[in-house]
Amino acid sequence: MVDAPAISVIIPTYNRAHLLTPSIESILNQNNIGVSYELVVVDNNSEDDTRRVVEMFTKAGENVRYLIADKRGTSNARNCGIINTSAEILAFLDDDVRAQPDWLATIKRTFDENSDVAFIGGKVLPSWNQPPPSWLTHEHWSPLALVDYGDEGFVIDWRRQVCLVSANLAVRRTSFAKCGLFSSDLYRCEDHEFEVRLLKSGSRGLYVPGLVVTADVQNERLLKSYHRSWYSEHGRTLAQFRGYEETETVVGSQQATLRLFGIPSFLYGELLSNLAHWFRASIRREDSKAFYFECHARDRFNYLRVLFRERERAGWRATISEVFLFSKHLALRKLKKPAKY
Q: Radius of gyration (Cα) for the chain, nearest Å?
């Protein structure tokens, strides 16, 4: 019996044959320093030359496997990779991402040195195909799946929740056994939802600034229309698993327990605050800042919209005391400030 590799690298892909080769080569050209690994490319039923591209590597005797995920969706592809591998560490890349030469070695060393950590992630830095517009500052990186939380590592737990995106994520196999696979019901934010489940179970993560990948930024993602659409869908998706409410409840905020129509008051406050900041920045002609608050207002609005539809189906009910407490709270407290711009 052949021993299982230390790390299984899983790359889900769909109709991106033209981007896939650099991603695969970035793993094959690693400075492994004795780290055993396998690379598994999971094809989400692509209609282009994806299979041919991967088979060029398999026929050349490279350490690459090709799988097909029958069901469409990135989560289904990643889950197919998880089920069909045996390494104790599962490392995830996107098909438009290139790992730095020490990526595998950094993953192995970090897990060896931190036996209590369930998952790790690091920086996802941009590779621009054209200069970004002036408004697209670091604060607007989320829709691009870019990450840079600084050069100091930190532990991720209930008190400090940040999302380590699946473009640069490594997870112990035992974490999937404990909390299940990626949710196939979500169009996006499946990495966020999975990490919330891990944190709820008592697991911890680690941001590792030296774990670096580079991502191509497609030109269409430089458009404001793309960002508006992304934030609207992001709000709707997070509402499916109550992503904002999980965070607020965990840190013990009083707002999380104060509700109107069963919806936490902080969600109303964040929407109104973002609208107010959007208006003020627009008046001052601060384009980048105004767009930031516009996008976050869209996010919270669509989050609330999903909750309101659920309440409508269940029937509207609010006690007099609930309305009174909510009104009193808004009257006595300044609007909660959104994340720093």
A: 22
Residue 109: which of 35, 183, 201 has the closest Cα?
35
Distance CA 200, CA 305 (A): 26
Closest CA to 74 of 15, 120, 33: 15
- End-to-end, the C-alpha distance of the chain in Å comes to 55
CATH 3.30.450.20 is the classification of domain 7-222: no
| pTM for the whole structure | 0.87
Structure tokens at 15: 């109709």
Cα–Cα distance, 245 to 305 (Å, whole number): 15
CB 206 within 8 A of CB 110: yes
Contact residues for 223 (Cβ-Cβ < 8 A; gap 6+):
none
Q: pLDDT 10s digit of each residue in the chain, 341 long?
A: 457 899 999 999 999 999 999 999 999 999 877 899 999 999 998 999 999 999 999 988 888 999 999 888 899 999 999 999 999 999 999 999 999 999 999 999 999 999 999 999 999 999 999 999 999 999 999 999 999 999 999 999 988 889 999 999 999 999 999 999 999 988 888 999 999 999 999 999 999 999 999 999 999 999 999 999 999 999 999 998 887 876 655 444 444 567 777 788 888 889 999 999 999 999 999 999 999 999 999 999 999 999 888 877 666 565 666 667 767 666 665 555 555 66
155 forms bridges with which residues in the sheet? 206
